[in-house]
Design goal:
The chain is of the alpha+beta class. Helix content is about 35%, strand content about 10%. It has 14 helices and eleven strands. Helix 1 packs antiparallel against helix 4 and helix 12 packs across helix 14.
Length: about 525
């Protein structure tokens, strides 16, 4: 908040004469700036004329006069209806759960594993006032190369620096050798992503086929990318606002995590994302609050005895992924479901299967994109099931698929993206189609593959059900055999015939005609015969 305070000026006459003394000009008002309305004792007086105060309603903050930047920043933050929500805190990621889905392996492949940890060692405080003071006084000094970039702000008069060096000391960010990293242009990482030369390739890796034209919706992400995005929105590239859509700066981050390259320093991303968040009008967020807190403690701007607002920092776990996720678990597996896609992972320390013990059906393990939350047990399909689901094959009238023979199991050869690419017509034909024709072809292939996979799921479920009762049926059959054998031996004993528990097989075809002189035991008959 900012306010003006008039200094006391002498306007009374020291003379008792009859004439009025010429009025003394009032002194210039002083501009008083403070961080919050509740802290009347923490004002820092700035010798500024309120009439010179600029208006910040567009453009970056660092284009405004340097002496007014803290005041303008405090004004903007103190006008927020829910200011505490603008301070985004990272969350510690549960490795025992998320590690089984390969999350930690993907972050380690880029040297970003520190982004999954929190190093401020404080699980109950949010130093909102100190963080806002640091953001308001933040300055970016000139640098010759990206690794020399430094952001320096003040907290209680103590300068606190965020740089490649201080972040490395805080959490060992970018753990791979420096030669393994490349520094992308800022336009390719945060500013003008749609002009990236590999923009469409990146979208194809993280989205379901045919779903990334126009607005990028979060529900259309592959389930692996969707899980990574939930973490990145807190720990890697934090933001508020509409969580239903995927923002452009999140695309290269997800692509690098899924693809394992290109590798770029996460410190470069953190520093630039924080600087943009501070300067861009209307952004109204403070990202990386726990990193900032760690730096303030590291550089003695706050001590372990200081206390902020009470806030419990909860860890990131599978049962708290938010709306759109369903988490269940069995004895051996963690299971996730989101918008028709399913994914399971073996629990850490899960027991081994006993000899002959069947595992859960494998069909639950695959990620099957579908518009429905459940699998279709009896999907509707005609002659084109497996070769194109609708109309004249999945290419419609664009291509004659009659010349392509049906291949059993075509829907299971790799991931869904690989299936779609394998089922496309020759490139000499496919490349001549328009974008809408290609999209229709890929979507029809997806529908057909989903039907094939649903049929297999139904068969596997029925087979699992049959195996469940196969043992009990065999036990009943054996018990009936033992009952029949006991009756046979009792009948032989009662008739005076030799009683044999398991008599040898008798070849009656080779015996002479029966004359009544020899009595053979009654042969055993198994119920199954």
């Amino acid at each position: 908040m900012a306010r003006t305070k008039e200094q006391a000026g002498s306007s009374s006459s020291s003379s008792k004469g009859k004439g009025k003394q010429k009025e003394q000009q009032p002194r210039k008002r002083q501009y008083m700036g403070r961080i919050s309305e509740s802290e009347s004792g923490s004002e820092e007086e700035m010798e500024l004329d309120p009439s010179d105060k600029p208006i910040w309603d567009s453009g970056p903050l660092d284009d405004k006069p340097e002496e007014w930047q803290p005041t303008l920043y405090h004004d903007r933050m103190n006008k927020l209806k829910n200011k505490a929500a603008a301070f985004i805190c990272e969350r510690e990621v549960n490795e025992a759960q998320l590690g089984q889905f390969g999350v930690f392996d993907k972050f380690r492949a880029l040297g970003w594993e520190s982004a999954l940890k929190c190093f401020d060692k404080d699980k109950s405080n949010l130093f909102l006032t100190e963080i806002q003071e640091w953001m308001a006084t933040l300055k970016c000094h000139n640098f010759n190369k990206p690794s020399q970039m430094k952001l320096i702000g003040e907290v209680h008069g103590v300068p606190v620096e965020m740089s490649f060096d201080t972040l490395k000391k805080l959490g060992k960010y970018d753990s791979l050798p420096a030669r393994d990293y490349m520094v992308p242009a800022l336009d390719d990482l945060l500013l003008k992503l749609e002009k990236h030369v590999r923009w469409n390739d990146m979208l194809a890796v993280i989205f379901l086929p045919g779903t990334y034209s126009g607005i990028l919706y979060r529900k259309n992400l592959k389930i692996e990318a969707k899980l990574l995005l939930a973490i990145c929105l807190l720990n890697v590239i934090p933001r508020r606002g509409d969580k239903e859509q995927v923002r452009y700066p999140e695309v290269p981050v997800l692509y690098s995590l899924l693809h394992g390259s290109p590798r770029f320093p996460i410190r470069y991303l953190i520093i630039h994302h924080l600087w943009i968040s501070r300067n861009k009008y209307g952004r109204d967020i403070v990202p990386y609050c726990r990193i900032i807190t760690g730096l303030m403690k590291q550089q003695k701007a706050i001590t372990s005895e200081d206390r902020g607002l009470t806030k419990r920092h909860q860890p990131f776990t599978l049962d708290k992924l938010g709306i759109g996720w369903t988490y269940t678990q069995s004895e051996r597996y963690h299971k996730l479901k989101s918008k028709g896609q399913r994914w399971r992972a073996l629990k850490l320390g899960a027991r081994d299967l006993l000899p002959g013990e069947p595992d859960e059906p494998e069909s639950d393990e695959g990620v099957v994109p579908s518009g429905d939350e459940e699998y279709a047990d009896e999907p509707h399909g005609g002659e084109n099931v497996g070769q194109g689901g609708y109309g004249r094959g999945y290419g419609g009238m664009f291509y004659d698929y009659a010349q392509q023979s049906y291949e059993s199991g075509w829907a299971y050869n790799g991931t869904m993206q690989e299936v779609i690419e394998n089922q496309r017509p020759p490139a000499s034909i496919f490349d001549t189609w328009s974008g809408s024709e290609r999209t229709l072809s890929d979507q029809n292939t997806t529908n057909s593959a989903s039907i094939e996979r649903s049929l297999k799921h139904s068969f596997d479920r029925q087979e699992s059900w049959n195996r469940t009762f196969a043992y009990s049926r065999e036990v009943v059959t054996n018990n009936r055999y033992f009952d029949d054998q006991a009756r046979r031996m009792h009948a032989d004993w009662h008739a005076g015939r030799p009683v044999v528990e398991d008599p040898q097989h008798v070849d009656y075809a080779s015996l002479p005609p029966y004359d009544g002189s020899v009595s053979y035991p009654t042969p055993p008959l198994h119920h199954s015969q």
